[in-house]
């Protein structure tokens, strides 16, 4: 069983920065694709960024140039560095681990950006 624990969410003003972390238990982290998703009230959950087991990142157009996903396989942790935050970045951010047909979610961490 895999458990994912996110941390780092907070309330910040527009233009600020936050760094989210997601620590994974278990032994499959290094082989898995890791992703960060977010969900704003009334909206569907959307992919923000993902990173392959080999470290190749992919970022949604809405966050390119502002957010950076990275991973540390030695620590079983994936990060999301968020800079130049905007009010539209507000939402609950979820960590996802995907390996083959298996998919696991964290409990989410709240990010609130005020104008």
How would you describe the overall organization of this protein?
With 115 residues, the chain is mainly beta. 0% of the residues lie in helices and 53% in strands. The chain is built from no helices and eleven strands. It has strands at residues 4-7, 11-13, 18-24, 33-39, 46-51, 57-59, 67-72, 77-82, 91-99, 102-105, 109-114. The strands form two sheets. Strands 2, 4, 5, 6, 9, 10 and 11 form a seven-stranded mixed beta sheet that branches. A hairpin with a 2-residue loop joins strand 9 (91-99) and strand 10 (102-105). The protein is globular and about 40 Å long. The N and C termini lie far apart (40 Å). The relative contact order is 0.32.
The largest sheet, given as strand count, sense and whether it forms a barrel, is: 7 strands, mixed
Number of strands: 11
| Unreliable stretches | none
Beta-strand content estimate = over 45%
Order of helices and strands: EEEEEEEEEEE
Using only C-alpha atoms, the radius of gyration works out to 13 Å
Basic shape: globular
Helix content: under 10%
Rounded average pLDDT: 97
Secondary-structure class: mainly beta
Intertermini distance: 40 Å
- Enumerate how many helices there are, as a single number: 0
Task: For the structure shown, list the relevant keywords.
115 residues, mainly beta, seven-stranded mixed β-sheet, four-stranded antiparallel β-sheet, 53% strand, globular
